[in-house]
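Structure tokens please, single chain.
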Amino acid sequence: MKLPSILTFSGLALTCQSVFAAEAVSTPATGFLQIMLALLFVIALMLALAWVMKRVSPLQGQQQLGMKVIGGLHLGQREKIMVVEIGDQWLVLGVTPTQISRLESMPRQEHLLQNGTPSNGTAFQSWLQSRIAKRTEQQDTGSST
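Here you go.
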């Protein structure tokens, strides 16, 4: 007795589905809306995956190399000077969009750090100005001879 009622119910459901499918009118706006929602979903998924990769990937490589950025100074819109610590050495690097140049290397400066963070920068600025003055003096004496 149950089998015929199940068959009757499933036949009725198929009939209703075909009637509603025939009555449902697909407009171009509905199709466009579905496409836009699918596109937004894919873009959101890509952004979420990129965020996850950014949070996970660099941490592993940075810890293995033993490098860290101590500080930096913006010189222009796209130029800056960075101080990077590698082991017990500090490298002063000039960074532009096309290249990175080593300006100077020096031993680690403990007195410039306070609790693991850079100080206000006055000691570094005076050191940098003295190095620039010394370099210009060397270039002036080298060009005059």
